[in-house]
Design goal:
There is one protein chain. By secondary structure, the protein is mostly helical. The chain has one domain (about 25-90). About 80% of the residues lie in helices and about 0% in strands. It has two helices and no strands. It has helices at about 15-55, 60-90. α1 (about 15-55) runs antiparallel to α2. It is rod-shaped, with a radius of gyration of 25 Å.
Length: about 90
């Protein structure tokens, strides 16, 4: 239980305590990665929904679906990039 130069660690072995701190840090870091991934995925969903809601859909059903597809063709690649980066952050 004695540390360097006779210092006594009151909570046990300093190596054990260092290992426990390292494990705790890894858990916190994993939690941060998960939170970042969740936020990126939520941003992708919000971005997609907001873009579609801004489209002034008019015309026949076929015309309306084409307008939505056109919007998705613009927004979807950005959303996919956000989700891909989120997944890579978890690995």
């Amino acid at each position: 239980m004695d540390g360097p130069e006779g210092f006594s660690f009151p909570f046990g072995d300093s190596d054990d305590m260092s290992r426990q701190f390292a494990e705790m840090f890894e858990q916190l870091q994993g939690g941060q990665k998960l939170a970042w991934a969740d936020n990126a995925i939520q941003l992708a969903v919000t971005l997609t929904v907001a873009a579609i809601n801004r489209v002034n859909i008019q015309g026949t059903t076929a015309e309306q679906s084409e307008q939505i597809r056109s919007c998705m063709a613009t927004v979807f690649p950005e959303a996919v990039t956000l989700v891909r980066e989120a997944r890579q952050g978890l690995q």
